[in-house]
Amino acid sequence: MFRLVADLMSGCGVRNGEVLAVNINTIVANDVYRITEQVNQTTKTYAPLKHRKVGDYRDVPLPARVKHSIEWYADTCGTIDGYLLRSPRNLTKPMLNYCIGNQWQRMKKAGLVEIPERMVVYGFRHFFASNCLTHSIPITDVADWMGHRSLDITFKIYRHLMPGSIGRAAKVLNLDLAA
After folding, report:
1. Contact between residue 37 and residue 47 where contact means Cβ atoms under 8 Å apart
2. Gap between the Cα atoms of 169 and 52, Å rounded
3. Alpha helices (H) in the chain, listed in sequence order
């Protein structure tokens, strides 16, 4: 289960609540995953996305590895109405956020994988943004995929990943001004 969570967060930039609502039926193309809902921590039910109305969605890139993880999990563990992550105590209900946190803590405690001391599950989402931005994906696209309410949020958090933009701009402008 945790591999699926890590792949979705690091490969698609989904939030914790959104990963809990992963549904195989929202793969809309080989390289596009549609995020349509999340599990609300308060109501413990499926709910609209953060900053969105009922029926709104976000399309995000779907790397082949993540698509494979979704399909493998569905084939191995099954689905209920397409949903992959269900409550271990009651399969008719969605999995809750604390299940992911508990598994993360068990993995850290058991030393099954090397996890940096201060790393949290949400770090996988930051990896997604950092990976996109350091590979020159436009910040406007990254902000949209992450579901940020405004570009300012993305810019304030990740601006440090684009320090060379002023220097690159100066070089480009210098070339054009010299011509």
Report:
1. yes
2. 35
3. 2-12, 16-19, 64-77, 97-110, 123-134, 139-146, 151-158, 165-178
Q: How confident is the model over 166-174, as a mean pLDDT?
A: 79
Torsion sign, CA atoms 131, 136, 138, 141: negative
| CATH superfamily of this structure's domain 2-178 | Intergrase catalytic core (1.10.443.10)
Which residues, 6+ apart, have CB-to-CB distance to 82 below 8 Å?
23, 24, 25, 26
Residue 23 three-state SS:
strand
Tell me the residue type at 74: A
Using CB atoms within 10 Å of the CB of residue 76, give its burial: 0 to 12 exposed, 13 to 18 middle, 19+ buried. exposed
Q: What is the pLDDT of residue 163?
A: 63
pTM score, two decimals?
0.82
